[in-house]
Write a structure and sequence with these properties.
The chain is α/β, with parallel strands linked by helices. It contains twelve helices and eight strands. It is about 55% helix and about 10% strand. The N and C termini lie far apart (about 55 Å).
């Protein structure tokens, strides 16, 4: 049984706390609704006045208030179930979804998000990066947010491919392998305890976002140098083994790193690129499988349409293979 989900397709949803929905983002959501005929927007209500206020604001923006579905607070079982019956999660900005985003992704619901510069605006981008699907539904600007929302609401084939990649990546990503994540987190705590016992009071812990090449950067954020590598900054992706270095006192520039530290850095770098290589090859294979499945039709008219949409899949495969080639070259240097 599916509960508390409006009938029809598509159903956009934003089950964050309603106070996260700012006027600018609400206007963007209404633009998407206006462009996608028959669409509905489900938004969470925690107070009796929330629904009335949101429907009034929708009417001000030229949207029939009946297209705004006021969702209730449900227990976890039905909360996850309504995600599975929805089409696309429209993230809030600048304070985005956190726990709710994890629940939506667990249910296989794609999330459209625009990461900003703050931590609170980048949680969804980080989660999608861990899944290796950040390039599918992360955008740079508010205009791109509206454009992609309209595309995914109108083009069911595009939406099907996006959702299929998300569901496929769940089985290979560390995001939902809590046992592996827990082991690495325990190791991090052990390292911090040992540093405390050794009298080291201040440390720097370096992390890189997994599959960061698939995540868009804010226009105001400088691009990362193509020559940078984990070995240069002793950075590895979390939840992989963390690299912890004392920040005080600072080491003397004339003091070379120990052989043990060099070996640890090299091992961390190799682990990072080995993992990236495996992720990109796996993503390329999954996309190739989708392409093969699409081209199995014997209907000539249908085949003509599929050939056009399949070009996007070919581009995706090429991009993944280029990233895998880069990881392979870096792996040879580490």
């Amino acid at each position: 049984e599916v509960v508390d989900v409006p009938a029809g397709w598509p159903v956009f949803t934003s089950l964050n706390h309603p106070r996260k929905m700012k006027p600018m983002r609400f206007s963007s959501c209404m633009e998407i609704l206006r462009a996608v005929a028959g669409s509905k927007f489900s938004i969470l209500s925690r107070h009796s006045s929330t629904g009335e206020n949101l429907r009034r604001e929708a009417k001000k923006r030229g949207i029939d208030p009946s297209r705004i579905h006021i969702a209730k607070v449900l227990n976890k079982k039905f909360h996850i179930r309504r995600f599975k019956a929805s089409t696309l999660f429209l993230d809030t900005f600048p304070y985005g979804a956190h726990t709710t985003a994890t629940e939506a992704l667990y249910a296989g619901l794609p999330i459209l998000s625009r990461p900003g510069e703050s931590f609170a605006s980048r949680v969804v981008a980080s989660l999608l990066g861990s899944l290796g699907t950040g390039g599918d539904t992360c955008v740079r600007t508010e205009e791109e947010f509206v454009e992609l929302g309209i595309v995914l609401g109108k083009n069911q084939r595009r939406w099907n491919m996006t959702r299929a990649r998300l569901i496929s990546s769940k089985s290979t990503s560390p995001l939902f392998r809590e046992g592996e994540w827990l082991r690495h987190f325990e190791r991090l705590l052990k390292i911090l305890w040992e540093l405390e016992e050794a009298g080291v009071k201040h440390v720097k812990i370096h992390f890189d976002e997994p599959s960061s090449s698939s995540l868009p950067r804010s226009p105001s954020s400088p691009a990362r140098s193509s020559s940078s590598s984990p070995s240069a900054s002793s950075a590895v992706p979390f939840p992989s083994s963390p690299v912890v270095s004392p920040s005080s006192p600072s080491p003397s520039p004339s003091s070379p790193p120990s052989l043990a530290q060099e070996a640890a850095d090299s091992s961390a770098s190799a682990h990072f690129y080995r993992k990236q290589l495996d992720e990109e090859l796996g993503a390329a294979k999954r996309t190739l499988d989708l392409l093969n499945a699409e081209l199995q039709t014997e209907d000539a008219d249908q085949l003509g349409k599929l050939l056009s949409s399949s070009l996007d899949l070919v581009d995706e495969i090429q991009t993944r293979l280029l990233r895998a080639q880069h990881a392979w070259k870096q792996l040879g240097r580490s």
